[in-house]
Amino acid sequence: MSNPSLLILPGDGIGPEVMAEVRKVITWFGDARGLKFDVEEDLVGGAAYDAHGTPLHDDTMARAQAADAVLLGAVGGPKYDALDFSVKPERGLLRLRKEMDLFANLRPAQCFDALADFSSLKRDVVAGLDIMIVRELTSGVYFGEPRGIFPDNEGGRVGINTQRYTTEEIRRVARAAFELARKRNNKLCSMEKANVMESGILWREEVQWVHDNEYSDVELSHMYADNGAMQLVRWPKQFDVIVTDNLFGDVLSDCAAMLTGSLGMLPSASLGAPMANGRPKAMYEPVHGSAPDITGQGKANPIACILSFAMALRYSFDEGEAATLLEGAVQKVLAGGARTADLLGPQGGTAISTTEMGDAIVAALAASQ
Ligand code: IPM
Ligand code: MG
Hints:
41% of the residues lie in helices and 21% in strands. It is of the alpha/beta class. The chain starts with a strand and ends with a helix. The chain has 12 helices and 12 strands. The chain is globular. It has 2 domains: 1-111 and 262-369, Isopropylmalate Dehydrogenase (3-Layer(aba) Sandwich); 137-259, Rossmann fold, CATH 3.40.50. The mean pLDDT is 95. A 10-stranded mixed β-sheet has the order 2-1-3-12-11-4-5-10-8-9, with helices on both faces. The chain has a two-stranded antiparallel ribbon with strand order 6-7. The structure holds 3-isopropylmalic acid and magnesium ion (MG). Residues 250, 254 line the site of magnesium ion.
C-alpha cells in the first residue's frame, strides 16, 4: 500500500518559514513512528502569481483535488496590493476552498495554561478555555451573486455583495458542528443576525430543524452574532462549539483567537465531503496570515502551522494518538518557557527563533517516545 499523500502549499510571507518547521515534524513521524507520507510541494497565492500569473495554477488545483490532504501556509502581501482583484493571492485560497467544497472550517481556540497570563483578558476568563468555532466556508457573502462594483444612476458607483444561503448549505455545516459537539461537551451555539437578515432567519430555522430531527440530544442555543462577539470576550467558557456563517465566522474566529494570547497559536481544518477512500476532502492551515512585517526575520511562530498538521493527523488520517502526542509536545515546550516573539508578554523576555521553536518541538517529540 502506498503512503497517504500530502500536498504542501507554503504560499507567501511567513508561510514558507513556518512550513519548513512542519516538514521537520512530518519527517520525525516518518522516521520515528513509521508514519510516512508522500509529500509534494507547489505554489499558491503571490508565489504562484509570480511564477504563473495566476494565484492558483490549474495543475496545482488538480493536485490538491487528488491529495489525501492539503497543508497551506499563508497567502498575500503588500507586493500584491495593486493587482487586479481576480488575481490577488487570496483568490487562490478561495478557489481551493470552493472547488474542493470545504464547507466546514474548524477553528479551535484553546488557551494553553503556560500562556494564560499572556491573553489581553484576565487569567480566570481564559485559563482552560477550549472552544471550537465551525465556520461555513464555501458560501455566503464571500461567493454570493450578484457581486461587483457598478455605475449607479447618479454618476457614482455601487458596490454589491450578496449574502446567500440554501437549506442544504446550512444543514450540512450544522451537521458537522453537531457531530463535533457530541464528541465534546454536547453544546452548540448558532450565531447569525436573524433580527436584520432573512438569510439569518433561514439559518436559525434550518439549524433548529437539524437539531429537532437529528441531534435533539445536543443542547442547542441561538445568539445574534454581535452579542456573540461580546459574549466571547465577556465569558468565553460559556461556549463549547459555535456554528456560524462565512463572514461572521471570519470575524468571530479572529476574536476568539486573541483569547488564547496569540494568533500564532491557532490551527484550522477545512473539511468537505468524504472522498472515495473514505477520507474527507481536507485542507489544513494556520488561522494567521502571511505577516509581511516579520517575514524573513526568523520571528514567526510555527506552532499554528504545526498544530494544523496535528489536526490533519486527527481528521484526515485517523491518527488521533499521534495528534495528541504532537499537541502534548507543543504544550511541553511552552511550559518549559520557550517563546517566539509573539508570545512575549509586556514583561518581555528572550524570544527564540522560528527554527529553534520547530527544533524544540521535535526534541520534545523525541523525548516523549
Ligand atoms: C481567513 C482569512 C481569509 C478569509 C482571507 C485571507 C481571504 O482572513 O482564512 O480567515 O477572509 O477567509
Ligand atoms: Mg480571517
